[in-house]
Amino acid sequence: MLLKVHPRWLFSSNRAKQAFLLPGYLLLLTVCILPTLRAQSFNLPRPELITARQGLPQAFVPAIVQDRQGFIWMATRDGLSRYDGRNFKVFQPTTERASLSSSSMADIQTDSSRRLWILSEEKEIDIFDPARETFINFSRLPFFRRALGQERIEKYYPDNQNRLWLILGKPGKLICIDLATNRIHRFPELKSVITVRQNLGGPTWVATKNQLYRQDKQTGRLISWFTQPETYQSRPDTIQNLYVRPDGLLMLASNQHMTILHPQQGLLNRIVLPTYRSQWKYYFATDSRGNTFFNLDTLLLRFNPQQDSQRLETVAGSRYCRSMFIDQSDVLWMGTNGYGIRKYNLRAAAFDARPYNRGFQNDVVSAYLGVPADQFSGFPLLSSPYKFRYTFDKQGQLWFNAGITPFLRLNLATKQITPIQFPIKLDPSELNLTHSASLATDPDGRVWAIYDTLVVYQEEGRWKRFPFSIQSTVGLPVNQLVVDRQALWLATVAKGLYRVDRTTGQVRHYASQPNNVTSLSSNELIGLFADPLDTNLLWIGTFGSGLCRFDKRTGQCRRLTTQDGLPNNVVYSAIPDRRGGIWVGTNQGLCRVDRRTLRTRTYTQEDGLQADEFNRFHNLHLPDDRIILGGVDGITAFDPQQIGEDTYQPDVQLTDIQINNKPFKPDQDSLSVQAMPELVLPHDQNFVTVGFAAMQYNRQTKIRYRYRLEGLNDDWIYTDRPVAEYTGLRPGSYILRVNASNTSGHWSSHVRTLHLTIQSPWWGTFWAYACYVLLSLLIVYVLAQQYRRRLFLQQSVVFKQKESAHLREVDAMKTRFFTNITHEFRTPLTLILTPIGQMMQEERSKTDKRRLDVIDRNAHQLLGLINQLLDLSKLESGHLSVNESRGSLDEFIGERIQSFSAEAESKEIQLTYQSQIEGDYWFDMGKLECILYNLVANALKFTSSGGSIRVTLKPGIYLTVSDTGIGIPADKIDHIFNRFYQATSDSERSISVSKPEGTGIGLALVKEFIGLQGGSINVVSQEERGSTFTVFLPYRRVVAESLNQPVVEKPVTYQEDVAADSSTNIQNGEAPTILLVEDNLELLEFITSSLPATYRIHQATNGLQGFEEALKRAPDLIISDVMMPGMDGFTLCRKLKEDPRTNYIPVVLLTARTAMDSRLQGLTEGADDYLTKPFNLHELRLRITNLLERQRRFRDQMRKVLTSSDATLPATDTSVSNPFLEQLYTLLDTHLDDSTFGVDELADKAYLSRMHLHRKLKNLTGLSTSDFIRAYRLKRATQLLIQGQPVSQTAYAVGFESPAYFTRSFRQLYGLTPSDYATQAN
């Protein structure tokens, strides 16, 4: 530095000037001289290059600026580029709308209105509005062309008063344009103008080659600064450039000097610059710390009023700097002439990074510790930096070695090095790569050393041996040593950590335990460091297992790995500083760990490190807390106190928006994406992707992002990729908030907000909803009217339904009445017809027989009428169905016609039947019989003696009944099928005078039955000539595949001599027991008296009593009525068949219900037989006899199977299978060898009482329970004997208590001893 101050300034006759300049001179001494004594070196970090690979459109960058939003704008020869830290957006000339005048740009500057002023190489000026991304071709405006014509613009400057300063042509003429009024002010007195500058809130400065001017704010005149002779002589030589620092200092660059001018105090400071032959331009930029950077051809220099100027770096190649800018985050941007942009992180300058010169240990001693060459010429070639070990004694002197002897001791104050002899000589050729003598200092200041098994310490200038040997107790070799007042701590290469007690020599070993997370994470230890703030802690670096914080008191570790924030698990060093930080050197950067919170922060080359990968034992921690670390490429030194947290709070700006995966382009003259406060989209554009960026350009890889969309989710979404994506957004209003952290991970207080509205579709707008409301009201009105009408109709329907329900109820009551009355009629008819039948079989006089015949005939006629009434009631209730069966239609009709032959002969009426069909058909036998009976009976009734009746059956099933009777009047034919209608005439009354009048039911029933089967009936009649009834029935003919269907059974003819002697049912002197269940006492007594006297008969008058009697009596047969109070016959039958105590008893249902569904229901409930009232007494006796006989045969068969000597087991004989007996067989097989398993045990397992089991077995097998058990055991014994098993073993195997009893029982049952049986069988 060269300082030149003229004395005339200080001793001027002007006292006012003296009063002004004297304090300024003293200040100059303070500012310029004193800081020189404490100036320290400043090194730029490695630059980041931005070229075409990163998206820069062209490598010539003549200007760089930053707008108020934080975006970086770059002028290139291929357009205007906007950079957000990740992506470029390039603006180039286009014909679509106003754009750049030229893609080749020369300069960019900003004004106070956030606009960019662009100068092209063709010397045209454009104004660019970043908020709307619109251009104004300023130099093409009419007023500009009229005023300036074709004058060439060399330089320009927009100031803070909305004015534009222009330097025109090579003479350097100066003009000023008031942008508000477009008025132009010229300064013809100025020539050779170099530049115009203005500081914030200060005056405007104009520099020419030989003079500096300041504009007066009031008059607008330019006033020369160098006016006095002494100041004129002190002016710089030819001025090349002028720069105004943010603090107001002016820097005037000339060919040989950099002149620093303080305008308020009038002080000058002149810095002599190196002399260069070539000419250059100066470019300036100032960071937030007051450092001004400027270029000098290929040099980059730094100036600070508190320090000297300092040469920083030579720009690569022969090209030189073309632009320079420092952004808000202290990033230095240097645009080059063809080499793109060099970006320097100025906040990384706290690290002093240097490449190796002579190796780590030599560079540390000479370059960082300042030892002159005459004191230290360097370590020998055989020494290795991996063997570097050191310690500081109590005087602060450095003891160190590099694997050779003697050791060296350095006095940091005097820079004197003293050799220290070691008890043994270290030969580098005998040591491995890293094994060396480790050094440490105890709390009393004694220096300790350990090499192999030798442990010594310095006392009174001599080495003394440790009194205890570690040869057999410590796993050698030792990498690092720490000594406290109680013990020596040894970190070994592969055996973990050892503690050697200084008093007793006792050794304790700490090793890694896989299942113990509080043990060491590895036994391969690289570094061991004592904590200066807590003597109970050790920090241990491992090879591949992270960092361990070891507690001496507990012997436990707290492990730290990459999962806890370390950049890598290979830890070369863990140096604790005096401010609570642990500096961890790894393979992937330097990490600071907070010793209290264990929070981590990682530094890399981007932060100023020489390299990310460090080396083992390449570290030195100086007493002033400075740390020196060696890596693969060089040395990184730093003061932990200077490494602070990043306090910068970056803005976040939107960079681009995509709608439905297509770039969003705002309308012309509307705000651009980065300035857009809100975004309104139609409903079908609801897939939104928003890109954003943090306006911080240093260490961008450490910046994190977060965003949230209020209205959809209230929680932040964290990401490393600054993109917010939302798909399928529903119509509504949202607020998108995006935020970023700084490089230290602290979230910025600046949050970018975008109001997002997804419009509703036309059917979801206000007017649409208004229409919906009106339409809804209209619909409600219409519905209300319809509801009123419907309500009226419903009331009418309800009234009709009630009326119909009343009618149905009346009809149901009538149906129930008919059903009940017919049932009540059938019981008395049974008591009439059955005794009449018995009396008619006895020997009677002819008079009695004739009378009995009249009674029987009229009783059967009454039964027919009852049946017709029942059928009508079923028709009305809809319960009557067609029950088809297969049979010969011809034969069936012929048999029914034949039954009327006797009556026809008695009336002398010719009855003929003729059929023209053959084969079988499907038809309902009961309903066809009713149709034939009514038609033929009516014909016989209304045909006189001597007449004829002809019945014919034709193909297609046309049945015709013709008579020659009295006929039917024509006016009454339509009414003859109405219920209870009777067509009466004189002729009719004369014919039927001797006959009872009809009921008017027959023909109505005929028509109902025919319609039910899908047929039809037609009547042709003439009075006095007769009537013809033609019936069509759609019966189906039986085809071949239907041969297996059930056929119509012919009526059973019961002969008088059928043997029904009940004596056949008496077995072993026991008469059969029959239980009668009937609510009609008269019928109950009649049936009882009609059955053979050999039967033991028990009676019950209802279902409940019948079930109790069945359980009590265990009868052989049960006969039950169906319709009874309390419990009907169906329920009684079901309960009997479900109860294991009674399910073997046959049940016969005897009822007045003749319908097929009643029969099927009874059989479904388990009935063994079904008889309808009135019944034939002889048929009842036969059915009872057959059921009892079937029971007897089954009982005999079961007894035969159990008592025969055949070895076949009952359970395997399918011919006599019974589920209950099979259950008993299984129980007996389970307890076959248990002699105590008897009657009680079997009854208990079968869930029956002893009595019921006895009765059931007696009924099924004819054996008592004990005989049954014994017979089954003996039957099982026959199998074992045939298999060759000994008699005694067989006896015990089948449950006999002794072989003798077994033999006696076997002979008693089979007539042979077991031995003889086995012999015969084999």
From TrEMBL:
Residues 820-1037 form the Histidine kinase domain. Keywords: DNA-binding, Membrane, Phosphoprotein, Transcription, Transcription regulation, Transmembrane, Transmembrane helix. CDD domains: HisKA. Residues 1222-1320 form the HTH araC/xylS-type domain. It comes from the Bacteria. InterPro entries: CheY-like_superfamily, HATPase_C_sf, HATPase_dom, His_kinase_dom, HisK_dim/P_dom, HisK_dim/P_sf, Homeodomain-like_sf, HTH_AraC. The chain crosses the membrane at residues 762-784. PROSITE patterns: HIS_KIN, HTH_ARAC_FAMILY_1, HTH_ARAC_FAMILY_2, RESPONSE_REGULATORY. Its EC number is 2.7.13.3. The modification 4-aspartylphosphate is found at residue 1121. This is histidine kinase. It comes from Spirosoma profusum.
